[in-house]
Write a structure and sequence with these properties.
UDP-galactose 4-epimerase, domain 1, single chain, Rossmann fold, 299 residues, alpha/beta
């Protein structure tokens, strides 16, 4: 009998790839997009879980942009914390045998006490998004203690051609493509010296699935273990379109964030050892693919 899965945030980058992955494995997949159900409404969540009766639940829906969380921290907390609590409660009540994956974030580590970070690194978030993910992660831990097969996946920055335009990698790839296509003349960016641990989103969703196939529920970091600067994204994207970035990129301090985490880079050795997971696609290949995809969309 085919397994069934329920995905919140199914129309987002990760949900889209995860749905495709699960369907190739024969799953019957259910899910919500951003405007299809209010995850902060317990009754709506309960009805959805009752109807789907999933074997696996992947909770990806969130207010997931750090900048937006700083602009409206209360909304971020409501969606990311209350929404997670609602889904956990319904899973425990309606499908207690289901396996539950929560998309946590490297932002819970914030000003981390160690680098690279491990699953045991103390939480120290520096922005509302990180705080919300920390609180939700703690609720998942409590549900696991209560008997639910509940997994936290600490996701580091992960990208793809499907990434939203409000994220800096896509902004850069799209900007370079638009300039090469004659649609734009310049690209305005903040501090391009900031470093990130970037992974391909398709590798990350593969890790999500693997984590729910394990014998025991646990926490895992999904990351490349390498950092790259925003400036490297700029240089690769503009080289891909055959332009000199210096001729088109303008520094704009209005894009700087209030507080940036320091040295967020993940140690995914636990996921490799227990799940046989590691990234397949390289950083350079990813940025080149994203830039070429952006060019294709403009033709």
């Amino acid at each position: 009998m085919a397994k069934s899965a329920f995905i919140t945030g199914i129309t987002g980058q990760d949900g889209w790839y995860l749905r495709e992955l699960l369907e190739t494995k024969g799953y019957e997949v259910y899910g919500w997009g951003r405007d299809e159900c209010d995850i902060t409404n317990l009754d709506q969540v309960r009805v959805a879980i009752q109807q789907a009766q999933p074997d696996e639940i992947y909770h990806l829906a969130a207010q997931s942009h750090v900048g937006a969380s700083e602009a409206d921290s209360s909304a971020t907390m409501k969606v990311n914390v209350q929404g997670t609590e609602n889904l956990l409660q319904c899973a425990q009540g309606e499908v207690p045998g289901a396996r539950f994956f929560f998309a946590s974030s490297c932002q819970v580590f914030g000003d981390a006490a160690q680098s690279p970070q491990k699953e045991t690194t103390p939480f120290n978030p520096v922005n509302p998004y990180g705080v919300s993910k920390m609180e939700a992660t703690t609720k998942v831990h409590k549900a696991r203690e209560g008997g639910l097969f509940a997994v936290n996946g600490f996701l580091y920055n992960h990208e793809s051609p499907r990434r939203g335009a409000n994220f800096v990698t896509q902004k850069i790839c799209h900007g370079a493509a638009a300039i090469a296509s004659g649609i734009e003349e310049e690209l305005r960016l903040g501090d391009t010296s900031m470093k990130r641990d970037w992974t391909d989103a398709r590798d990350v969703v593969r890790g999500m699935w693997l984590s729910l196939q394990a014998n025991q529920p646990d926490d895992y970091i999904f990351a490349s273990g390498q950092t790259h600067t925003v400036q490297e994204v700029v240089e690769i994207a503009f080289e891909t379109v055959g332009l000199k970035w210096e001729d088109h990129v303008v520094r704009d301090d209005t894009f700087k964030r209030k507080k940036e985490p320091i040295d967020l880079v993940g140690d995914a050795s636990k996921a490799k050892a227990l799940l046989d997971w590691e990234p397949k696609n390289s950083f350079n290949e990813l940025i080149i693919e994203m830039t070429r995809a952006a060019i294709q969309k403009m033709r």
